[in-house]
Design a protein that fits this description.
The complex is a heterodimer of chains A (236) and B (284). Chain A has nine helices and no strands. Chain A is mostly helical and 236 residues long. Chain B has 284 residues and is α/β, with parallel strands linked by helices. Classes of the chains: A mainly alpha (236), B alpha/beta (284).
Chain lengths: 236, 284
Amino acid sequence: MSYFELMGFGPKGWGLLLLKATGMTVAVSCVAFGLGSAVGALIAWARIQGSRTLKLGAEAYTTVLRGIPDLLVIYLLYFGGSAAMTAVGHALGAEGFVGVNAFASGAIAVGIISGAYQSEIFRGAFGAIARGELEAARAVGMSGRLLFRRIVVPQTLRFAIPGLGNVWQLALKESALISVVGLTEILRQAQVGAGSTRQPFAFFITAAALYLMLSSISGWGFQKAEALGMRGVRRS
Amino acid sequence: MKRLTGCAAAVAASLLLACGASAQTKDWSSIKIATEGAYKPWNFTDPSGKLVGFEIDLAEDLCKRMKAKCEIVAQAFDGVIPALNAGKFDAIMAGMNITDKRKEAIAFSEIYGRTPSTFAVLKSSPLAKLPEAGKVYSLNADGLAAAQKSLNELKPMLKGKVIGVQTSTAQANFLEQYFKDVIEIRQYKTTEQHDLDLAAGRVDGVFASISYLKGVVEAPENKEMMLAGPRYSGGALGFGVAVGLRKTDPELQAKFNAAVSAAVADGTVKTLSMKWFGFDVTPR
């Protein structure tokens, strides 16, 4: 059987399964990245504006999440989460096992890791806003909320886009680690295909091509977004 | 630190919302069985995504005998034991050998399959001339002395060689126990990965179950590979392949024991084994 037959959409082809797995990778990465943005923004806010304890907490979060292996975070959330929730269930009088959904725990695990990285990017981007802009906004009488909406958010995002593009690619690749919790994304599907056909090379090279395709498309998207964000700025 | 605990609570709450509780009856009228889905011919996946293989057919037969409704799910092998103990599913049928180490974590049913393990090497390698090719030794108490003698004869030939093996398997334990100070053991996540490295010449040989390696050396793209040396079974290599179960479910274990014994006794295991392996894996 030729490579293209094996990866095709015929009765003996793995195309459809690999396509579905690609969809799963995209879905997990998107949910994780979105969650990471929310977490990252909160943490960045805590580090910039928060009280002493908030600052310490936020710093601990980014230090811990960036400092331990991602696979470990996934294991902790998935197996630890199931065990903890079963224990809570028992305490509340429920019988048996309380499951943690593989998609949810995978997306949350990658999301909170991504959040740690994104918070640093947001913090840096906020720091890059010209202080004069903020002072000018205050001088014309903008209240805190209006200032945040009109100046802080758009300006921060503009500076954050290149860094966010990087973190997005990290999330995309980290999604491959979720295969351990039984979610069928690209890497897991490639391993299954390799073990089932004894043609590992064909499957791994296809998986590599799929990841490269996803990262190229999204890289192009981030480039466009960056150009759009910088359209009002003349580059020297 | 308040933020941190708040965050943990939020995560826990969203988990609860996202997943819900899967309450479970304990009369075992329905059983969830996990397999790897990537270990031909024990259990693998066809291009339509369906799980197939020896253990899939056997599970179907066992469930009929236990009058239970079974659901078979695929799970990556390296997370399968913690997931069982966390309660994700009730049983494992994934070509998993009983070993003393695994027995510390989980319980096992009666054995439904036993295949010896051996080396695969490149035909051009000096290891192609390992002695006693095809001879089977048992590492159980009855054959241990003879097996030890043959292992000692292998040691000088294997000295300094790099041998690939799948991680957290009985085969890895075996190499650790008998060849640790002689060879360099390189562990891989899946068996395919050590095959690729064997083909690339990055390892001098691999050590795996014959039921798996037979298919590998017969594949057209692996013309330069061959089986080598004697074969070993029992002892550190596991007492055989069985259903993995939680230690807290003795009723389920009793049910599986009865079903497996019946399937071995009436020849069902042999029939399925001939269909998928081309040889008999029935434990004797």
